[in-house]
Design goal:
By secondary structure, this protein is mostly helical. The chain has one domain. It has 6 helices and no strands. It is elongated and about 70 Å long.
Length: 161
């Protein structure tokens, strides 16, 4: 079900069901975004599990818990970490969209989507009310994408020369 619907629509449904607050926004975004990381972690674990050195470690008498914690998990962390930093832009945009629609954080707490929404009625006379929070969203999303790209370059051994 989580992969069948667009993530923003599903997050809106969860946020509307739970009510507008910071905790509910985090829960709604988490409920929508977990599938990407679960699929990636499973695929990486299956790939590492079939490596010959894992069989050799098992043949030496290591238990399944030891193999998972000391050998499989460290090999699966880097792709998941890179994907996490790359998906942070989507998470920020989803949170801003929920705030823009009034389903996110309530007014005593500052939120960029709510700031953009509040400035809509003043857009012709006081354009900066909506523009600067929008620019801040764009800069932070770009920053996380560049961070994820840099982490991928650092952590991928095939790209090292």
């Amino acid at each position: 079900m989580f992969l069948a619907f667009p993530s923003l629509i599903l997050a809106m449904a969860f946020a509307a069901m739970l009510g507008p607050s910071l905790v509910n926004t985090i829960i709604a975004i988490s409920l929508v975004g977990w599938t990407v990381f679960a699929r990636l972690a499973r695929a990486e674990a299956m790939k590492v599990k079939n490596q010959p050195y894992i069989e050799a470690i098992g043949a030496l008498g290591a238990g399944k818990t030891r193999i998972i914690t000391l050998h499989v998990t460290p090999m699966c962390i880097s792709p998941v970490l890179v994907q996490l930093t790359l998906r942070m832009g989507t998470v920020i945009l989803t949170a801003a969209s929920l705030g823009f629609l009034g389903l996110g954080v309530r007014p005593p707490l500052p939120e960029w989507g709510a700031m953009v929404s509040d400035g809509r009625s003043f857009l012709l006379d006081q354009w900066w009310i909506s523009t600067f929070p929008g620019i801040a969203i764009a800069i932070v999303v770009l920053g996380f994408n560049l961070l994820g790209d840099g982490l991928r370059d650092i952590m991928d051994p095939r790209l090292r020369r």
